[in-house]
Amino acid sequence: MTGAARNFFILALLYGIAGMLLGLYMGLSQDHSQMPVHAHAMVLGWLMSGFFAFFYHFFPAIGQSRLATVHFWLTAASGIILLVSLYFLFAGNPVVEPVAGIASMAFFACFLLFVWIARPAFSRAG
Ligand code: HEM
Ligand code: HEM
Question: Which one of 7, 42, 84, 101 has the lowest number of neighbouring Cβ atoms within 10 Å?
């Protein structure tokens, strides 16, 4: 894997490690208050980043585009800020709520960017 595919793959692995450690902590401590952070780290982090990694791997021309690099960095930044702010929110710090809100919208905007980037794959020839 190279470029955006490799970056997303590494990001997915890091989310998986962090998310599962949090899940283990939740199970061991029987404190499930961080469940939404664990759930999003696993699906928004590990599964979505893994999906992007294999998408860019199987469509290398799209994966090597400048926009794919932009997609990686904006997705990584907004996703990490979203999860870290959610962690503090569920730990009892409502002051970070606007940060989580802005990061959520940025993460959604990144997904729309991906829809645009991926459009050549919609074609039957892709
Ligand atoms: C080390 C492995 C894992 C541990 C110890 C673990 C632990 C937990 C715990 C304790 C909960 C809270 C359950 C509750 O409060 O109802 C939970 C929820 C959840 N976990 Fe994990 N988990 C692990 C791996 C995963 C993986 C691999 C995924 C997905 C790829 C995942 C996705 C979720 C989701 C989506 C929820 C929320 C479920 C709901 O909405 O009720 N977890 N996990
Ligand atoms: C734009 C960013 C997102 C926002 C603002 C958001 C918001 C939320 C909210 C408010 C809940 C309910 C939590 C609760 O009742 O405790 C939730 C649950 C959930 N979301 Fe998201 N979500 C986002 C992105 C995603 C994505 C991209 C995925 C999957 C790839 C996802 C998967 C889930 C799952 C599995 C649950 C159930 C687990 C739980 O209750 O924590 N979310 N989300």
Answer: 101
Residues with CB under 6 A from ligand 1: 20, 23-24, 26-27, 32, 35, 38-39, 42-43, 46-47
Residue 23 CA, ligand 1 centroid: distance in Å: 6
Checking if the pLDDT of 83 tops 90, the result is yes
Residue ranges of the alpha helices (H) in the chain? 3-29, 35-40, 48-58, 60-63, 66-90, 97-117
Q: Write the residue with the smallest CA distance to atom 11 of ligand 2.
A: 36
2 φ, ψ (degrees, to nearest 5): -135, 170
- The rounded distance, in Å, linking the Cα atoms of 87 and 38 is 9
Q: Which residues contact 9 (CB under 8 A, 6 or more apart)?
A: 1, 49, 50, 53
User: What pLDDT, on the 0 to 100 scale, is given for residue 122?
Assistant: 84
Interval 48-52 mean pLDDT: 98
Residue 77 has pLDDT above 80, yes or no: yes
